[in-house]
Design brief:
The longest helix has 19 residues. This protein has a two-stranded antiparallel sheet with strand order 1-2. A two-stranded antiparallel ribbon has the order 3-4. It is built from 24 helices and 6 strands. α21 crosses α22. With 458 residues, it is mainly alpha-helical. It starts with a helix and ends in an 8-residue tail after the last helix.
Length: 458
């Protein structure tokens, strides 16, 4: 029998490394042991990927790879259902860091390829990921790399590779930017065909040697006839890169509150573990600073929607209609998947819960988890209200919090919810009417918890 503390710790892990889990799921995971769960999460190849044949056949009206909305819809389905949750979570992390948007790219297949690349390689070697990113047609087009020529250098990609994707501002010179861009001259893409008459076609990476600057380049203190791969090999070895990735990983997976000591530990792990992202995340999830960081992050809209829908039990197969509405829900909360607002990505943390976004979030959660006939909610309510003898509203509240994934409420929220219920004394479950009353109250509590301040945090 696993303890409440063990279940709570695994619940914290599944919120950060995935999109949450219900009470029964957490009990099963906890029975394996925390370290074993971490090991499975960072080793997604142990599990098959989600089969999507039914989804694609049943939603043929949406199955249009030209549309980023369909790609986003499939991504939401994977977030909710994938047996490889960290794979999807890592793709979301890199998508925010290597922000590329449909608004400029305007090619659904190219955006889908970039997301698939982040998904396939997001837990691997960081240098390999940067090399693939530098060959990605959506990124090439997004940052005008196709206009970077040996005799006319465009610094856009070189600058953002250093500033936003790897090292952070202030850790390189303007000459480094120039020489980084020179190293990528000749890295381009095939011509993008017009949409009509046969629809969008993705582009492919092309290296044009005749358009490459073969001259000697000085970059971050090293000198040579560098190409793009060479400068990436230099970048990944920089202490500034380790620190940059430490900050990004801490902010996304650990806490909205900056912790310089923890960031340095992550940076050290990055260097010591050969720049392998999955191994760095294993170190993070096993660390004390991670274990102590529960409910110190505001959920992003994608996390919020996917986690709420998982609890509701909806969209667990490919047959249910309404899945296409989920990308629109994240948009109303400030995050349009596959279309970040700028190359800087989204501003996260408390900015996710400004007044307008917060209303959309509360309404979405209250509607989805207030639906007592939804399969997940019905199971949750059944488990929360079962038992014999009398039960107080406060005890039911604690049980509902546990069944919803070991959630937490502060004293003010608890008092408001219990006052709103207005139940005096205890509910007797010795009769059918008493059991029904307990279920009804549990159903109310689930919706109220979903509307609480604390439900916004992970």
């Amino acid at each position: 029998m696993v303890s409440r503390e063990e279940v709570s710790l695994v619940a914290h892990l599944m919120r950060r490394a995935g999109f949450g889990a219900s009470g029964p799921e957490l009990e099963e995971l906890s029975s394996r042991g925390y370290e074993s769960v971490v090991d499975d999460l960072v080793s997604p190849e142990r599990f098959p990927r989600l089969e999507e044949d039914v989804l694609e056949r049943h939603h043929a009206e949406h199955a249009d790879e030209e549309s980023p909305r369909w790609v986003a819809m499939k991504w939401m389905h994977r977030m909710i259902n994938s047996p490889r949750p960290l794979e999807e979570k890592a793709a979301l992390f890199w998508h925010g860091l290597f922000a590329t948007g449909w608004a400029k790219v305007r090619n659904g297949p190219m955006m889908n390829r970039q997301y698939s690349m982040l998904r396939d390689h997001g837990l691997g070697n960081f240098g390999n990921l940067l090399k693939r990113l530098s060959r990605d047609p959506a990124m090439i087009y997004w940052l005008d790399q196709q206009t970077n020529h040996g005799d006319a250098v465009n610094e856009n990609y070189g600058r953002e590779l250093l500033e936003l994707f790897s090292m952070g501002r202030g850790n390189y010179t303007e000459d480094d930017v120039r020489n980084c861009a020179r190293a990528f001259t000749g890295w381009t893409m095939t011509h993008v065909l017009p949409r009509y008459p046969s629809g969008y076609w993705p582009s492919d990476f092309v290296y044009r040697d005749e358009d490459h600057d073969h001259g000697v380049k000085e970059f971050l203190g090293e000198e040579g006839n560098f190409n793009g791969d060479d400068v990436i090999e230099i970048i990944v070895r920089q202490p500034a890169t380790a620190r940059f990735l430490g900050e990004a990983i801490h902010s996304f997976f650990v806490s909205d509150e900056r912790d310089d000591d923890a960031i340095q530990l992550i940076a050290d792990a990055y260097e010591g573990l050969g720049y392998e992202t999955g191994e760095v995340l294993r170190f993070v999830f096993l660390s004390d600073f991670f274990r102590d960081a529960a409910f110190r992050k505001v959920k992003s809209p994608a996390e919020f929607v996917a986690g709420t829908v998982r609890l509701s039990g909806r969209y667990r197969d490919g047959y249910e209609f309404g899945l296409a509405d989920l990308p629109s829900a994240t948009l109303s909360m400030g995050q349009e998947l596959l279309n970040p607002p700028t190359v800087e990505g989204w501003h996260t943390g408390r900015e996710w819960i400004d007044s307008s976004f917060l209303v959309s979030r509360v309404n979405f959660a209250a509607e989805r988890l207030g639906e007592v006939n939804a399969p997940g909610v019905a199971n949750l309510v059944e488990r929360a209200s079962q038992g014999e003898g009398a039960v107080s509203a406060e005890d039911l509240l604690d049980t509902c919090l546990y069944e919803m994934g070991c959630l937490w409420l502060g004293k003010p929220s608890r008092e408001i919810i219990l006052k709103e219920l207005g139940i005096e004394g205890k509910l007797c479950r010795e009769t059918a009417a008493g059991k029904d009353a307990a279920k009804r109250v549990a159903g109310q509590l689930v919706g109220m918890i979903a509307s609480s301040r604390e439900y916004q945090f992970t």
